[in-house]
Amino acid sequence: MSGIAASSEQSASDVWARVKRRLRAELGEDIFASWFGRLELDTIGDGCAYLTVPTRFLKSWIESHYSDRVLAVYRAETAHVERVSIGVRSTLGREPAPVRRAPEAPRPSNVTTLSGAGVPAEQKSLSAPIQFDERNEASDLGGAPLDQRLTFDSFIIGRSNALAHAAADRVAHHQTGPALYNPLYLHAGVGLGKTHLLHAIGHEVRAQGRRVIYLTADRFMYGFVASLKAQTSLAFKERLRGIDLLIIDDVQFIQGKQIQQEFGHTLNALIDAGRQIVVAADRPPADLESLDERVRSRLAGGLVVEVGALDEALRASILTTRIEALKGVHPTFEVGPNVVSYVARAITANGRDLEGAVNRLLAHATLTSSAITLETAETAIRDLVRNREPKRVKIEDIQKLVASRYNVSRSDILSERRTAAVVRPRQIAMYLSKVLTLRSLPEIGRRFGGRDHTTVLHAVRKIEKAIGEDNALSDEVELLKRMLQE
Asked: Where do the segments described as Domain I, interacts with DnaA modulators lie (predicted)?
């Protein structure tokens, strides 16, 4: 019986994997990642697939907009599912409201608290007009708390992030006159420090006694939808627009026409009133295809700064700083400079992987009571090196490289010209965009002068066939791939 149960469980898992693949193909990578990336299968019973998500907002949104699509895809994959139910993980019907903390006496702005035991530095005074971070979900505008560890003092500056740090510092300390660089838009891949800078700005501005709210995209969307249901949307808008600094993280996840319109109205109202806005995303405003064009234009109208990849010197500095901090708690934790150099060279993806590497080294040192050597370091971080994320390739980079390689301009590739000298490079660029990025065919078509997805599909198939028949072209395309991924 246990073998049958295991087989049934494996079958359900396989079906769910196929359902997700079909949803990704039908809806496109952006929509899938925004709404279905955290959707998981819990169990199947009595003809019902029980799915779970981490937040009530995701549950409400999927049920309202995609439940029929999910069920249709499921029924196309298996006859055993007749309905779909979506629940919230780690809850029993109701999520508890956040604990309300008692305020404490004001703390000097130059004091940095690294322990999580105390009251956050941003909760300084009962006299502040609005304590956004203390509001619970019933208020429709619960700002996420600021992490006490993420301050300007704890941010390590290197060549790749110096401009972003300087802009963030200038915005945070600007107190008179119109807002600077409005909005300030920071973009970067995962774990490169953009969220750290957002929290640092929030801490500094709150220390000046000004009103700040920090929201993730999910939180903004949940607050707006909840206010509509409770018929308190006017109060929601008034509270949101009555602050001095609005910080929005992961703006690429904002979805829905009505929510985007409200987000755009909020941006306009705050900017027109001279209030500061700081936004972070994983790509530049022009690449946020799912966002309304007017919102993208507004975001691009301020200062747009990319937080670049961590170079080796910066990675070594981050490792050294983290190791020194841990030595205060574990005095016997010693990591030699040769090990630090090795880890800095081996792990290149992001700061979170560096944090994971230090934690693995600490675990080895404390659990085995032995010194950290190069050999033990190699073993400890092997999974981080093996699972290192590849470089994220941008369609714009593909277009520029292909244009340069074939002696045409990028505008030629995006144009309607149909000469052989332009058509072949255009098709190669479309093919590379399909195989090296997660963009859907319609998205790629839009980035190539607003072409239809069928044009992109034709180009991809034509280059695939040509590669199989022409060794010289195959070698050329492989070279372009390597150049883009290095």
From this structure: 1-96
